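Good morning C.,

I know you're traveling, so I'll keep this short. The sequence:
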Amino acid sequence: MKTNNLGIQIRFLLLVLIMAFSLVSSPVRSDEFEDMKADMTADMEGVQNEMNDFDAYRKEINDEFETYKKIVDQEFTKYRDEVLKYWDKPEMTDKKIFVEYSPDMKSKKVVDFEKGQIEISVITPKGTKDSDIQKDITKKLEDLVTEDSAKAFKRDTFAQNVENRIVKASKNVKTAVVKKVPVITDIVIGTAAPTVKQVEKAVQDLKKDAKITTQPSSKVKGSDVVTVTIKLPKDAVSKKAHSYIEPVKANASKRKIDPSLIFAVMQTESAFNPMARSYVPAYGLMQIVPKSAGLDASKLVFGEEKLLSPSYLYDGENNIVMGSAYLYILNDRYLKSIKNDQSRLYCVIAAYNTGAGNVARAFTGKTNINKAAVKINQMTPDQVYNKLIKQLPHDETKNYVKNVSKRMDLYK
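The tokens, ready to paste straight into the viewer:
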């Protein structure tokens, strides 16, 4: 277990004070003094060695994350360039949109969790019979409707390459086996394990109001791009949220957090897209950034900082564990000097998106949260909220505070 550097420094100072106090508080013989001095010196050397070990470990972690980020950048560029050989725009999975290309890159499935919409696009030779196109699209829709997170991760060439390279490059990476959790099966059919007949019926129902567009492919000569657009059920968000009730309740109880906060953060971060990914990089339902929230949360959960791999964070339960742990750290450590619970909640929400330092900057122009807390503690919760909305440095974070605060009421 790696010790916190501040804790090591405190121990070092205590040893110095104990030695000084011992010398002035009680007379000792010269031989006793030499023995005591030798013991204290050995203790201080041990503490100093621990400090050196911690600093070396932190440097190793930081170096490994820089490698992590380089790997992500390189693999993203490589994957995007491959996509551009067949498609006009390199549409990629992001926070609220799941995108999956076929191995030959000639078909694409897109689920927009925020808009509640599916798009299936195929590059098909001109003159292909409509009936054949419809069969192909139906087959792909059936596959999408029954797909789970484990299969989605296995098919994701970009994520697989990142995972494999990070595991080889890092000694401090935490991996996992992604569990078989539905991507949209529970939304469309209402069960995670449907029968063949249920799948067929669900697909037919989805296709009833589908819109089909056809346009020439600018990348593959002699071909058209046929796209089918389908609306997801109107209650898709609530159904997806419902599938995470148990892990949310368990972690909310463990960390003494309001479950509605976890749900609201999940909806705002990913719209419950289990394969969510942003270029930061951040992964999963609660968009955990390996270098910041991931390190803090892993220290709390595992007792030492770990780099969290894509596989670890694409497991929904793991992601909720880490996101909840980070909310706890913000509330009970970084922002604990804010006395009013509601005021602190608003600051926790903002800090989850932009960091505690930027929250402090909204009140004082500087990043010291304890100094900012002095001002915050003189304000009402409404004044704190309004100050955040007005002074936070980025519009994204201002909207984030608004959305999470409002969405908490949906999960009470």
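Safe travels,
E.
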